[in-house]
## 1
Amino acid sequence: MARVRRMPLLLLALAALWLLQAAPVALRGEGLPLWGLVGLKGGLAALIGVRTFGLARWWIALQLALLPAVAGGFALGLPGWAWLAAFAALLALYWNSFRGRVPLYLSGRVA
């Protein structure tokens, strides 16, 4: 599917997510619980990733886990420097794979 044809589907998904958040507020005066919204958004991301972009099936688990992990991370209340430190550590560890497109394979001297 061409990139141009994907954009209307993504905009439609964005509108559907907005309705999922706004409709319960308009009808009952209260919104869906945070974890319900996180689950719905993760499910929609997984569906779009697999059906629209042709991602492999193992991406479904990653898409479903990403938003709950982010929400859980915010619930921990960690300071901003902790996230920056984690990013810097990962960047230092995987810098060569980013630059040279060669993954990191840790091995012993014999190998």
Note: Helices lie at 3-28, 34-51, 59-76, 80-100.
## 2
Amino acid sequence: MPYNKIFFEKVFSEKRMKRYFDLYPNDESRALMHYKCNLRLSESMYVPISVIEVTLRNAICRELVVMTNREDWYGAFGRIPELQGLLRYIEQAKNQIESRHEEVTTPKVVAELTLGFWVSLFNSQYEKSLWKHLRRAFPYMPKNIRKRKAVSAPLNRIRSLRNRIFHNESICWNLTTVNQHHREMIELLGWMNKDMPEWLAEIDRVPAVSSEIINNLNMR
């Protein structure tokens, strides 16, 4: 079966593929290669994104337990006016668990909460109530830049990249930007645990895949 423009537009939609075919109007095979490169780059990003998501979640939870002096730290949010708006995310997580006919436990609630929730804890409205506690989740962050914005900004960029990948959107256009986001992931991991970057490097394929794409498509 020919995997040509007609096939790709039928399977992935004409709108999604338009950007690739517009980029190479006289080279269909190159357009299709670019799309496949995008999928390969997205796939390679899964490892560092999943690692930073779990590492971040656990680091935050540890500090929230210390802050509230209870394992179900979210149970204390109702007593803190600035944090009461976060309770709706907790309820959504509990409802999702209950919809699967599972027992609601703290580990399950934590696992159900989205990356967007964890990243939102570093928003400006929580600077006074949370940052003084959550900054301890980054013990290896240089003191001269240990500010909420220095954590919030890269986390939001990583969250945006993650969402694009998980919705099969294009990321393989400006590899300089993609590689910068990847470096931010490694840096954030190092701020939380100094040994994580070295460990991740053993299984992280992003640099190799990015370099291969640059060579195949002659991109920068």
Note: The radius of gyration is 21 Å.
## 3
Amino acid sequence: MYMIRWTLNVALVVILTAAAAVFTFVFIRTFFYLPDEEIRAPPGETLEEAVDPTQHPARLVIPAIGVDADVQHVGINEAGNMATPSNFEDVGWYKYGVAPGGRGSAVIAGHVDNSLGLPGVFKRLNELKSGDDIFVESASGERQHFVIVSTRSYPYDDVPVDVVFNPQGSARLNLITCEGRWLSENRTYDQRLVVFARLANETET
């Protein structure tokens, strides 16, 4: 009887341990693992230090799709791509490019979902249309108003870097996320959605 009870206790411990391991694995993948939503980015020295820290972007607000997110400052990863936010609730400003409101195109990226398909900050980015509003708040609390001009989709490996990361011209803001078909072998989607916006007080060109 003692051996039977001992065996049952051991079996119960093994089952509970295995269940805990599975739960931990799923939890980590759900809340910390993010698909590859990166795009090739032009190299360059960081402009983060050249810009007054009070003007660094701190929050992104898009009323039409309910986005109100913190802004991380991201650079380039080992693959030479624009790095992405460390979670699926924040967005990432490309700190080697243009600051929002400065001359040229500022770039902000966000995840569309995580490994289990839970919605990311830019899950509804494809719902935006021309004329919708985007607001970027700086560290000092100053709010800049952008208006969407157009949206475009590109193959994930053929995004026009010179257009998206354009350092010249009028002040622009470009938002990036993934869409399309999931490529399991590459752990990414086959399309990149880019939303192009301009400062509200500037004439469209």
Note: The helical segments are 2-31, 161-164.
